[in-house]
Design a protein that fits this description.
Layout lengths: L3 H18 L3 H11 L3 H55 L9 H34 L5 E5 L17 E6 L3 E2 L4 E3 L4 E11 L4 E8 L2 E9 L5 E11 L4 E7 L19 E9 L1
Antiparallel strand pairs: 1-2, 1-10, 3-4, 4-9, 5-8, 5-10, 6-7, 6-9
Helix pairs in contact: 1-3, 1-4, 3-4
Length: 275
Amino acid sequence: MLSKASLKYVIFGLVFNYFCRKIDANDKRLLTNNMNGTSSVDHLLQRTDQTIQNLETKVSVYDSLVLSMQNKINTLETSVNTLNSKMSSCVSLSASGPCSVNETDVTDLKTKIPNIEGIIQMLSDRLLKVEKAQVSFCPTIAFMTSLNHVLSHVQSGVKLSFDNVIFNVGNAYSAFQGNFVAPKTGIYFLTYTITSTPRSAIIIRLHRNGVDIGQISHHDHSDYLKTTESILTQLTENDDVWLETEDVHHPDRTSIVNGRHNLESHFAGVLLYCD
């Protein structure tokens, strides 16, 4: 029988194979419905599919290796068990008479034991490569959202929820809660655009776990004002990012508009690379 450690490696291979397969059926559906074949997003999905296919190929190779090595180990264990049975029988009979052990079997056993240890070590080394591949796997994360209605008489301390989800690759943005939760530690590009009505007085701050990392300020402008803020930032897995209104001095005349095509005010981000 295989040791618990060996079985753990085999189970790991199966779990990793499943992990690689579970990404992005919902992402593709959202992209198809919302972007109507936008080329940049299609390219993003194609790159993700290629990465997954490469990982699945590697996992398939290692799965075959695991099976081959397991069969070899089982064969060697059977030989060892057979010889152990002979030795036990010999010990039982030694008190009543002479007992002979096939010297060839003993020599063969001495040769096979190092082989078993070598095979186990090789298997461990190969599976370690699979584990490193899993750790280094960087998912494709990208989202684009906008407002589909005007936010009138805006108050301070309101979290902005961009409810028109154009695409959400990786499902890291929640339109219901209005926040983006980083699924992986890495460097992210975040950008947001705010368009407000004339004479609005408002600050929109980008928060990470409650700490400001960016802001847009609109104060008593004479016409509609559209401003974009973009930042590069390092996010740790499960960091919470959202936009919030602050310092609204005249709520009665402060509104954030969505525009004719729901793209005057929007929030977007993408994971550039994993740490």
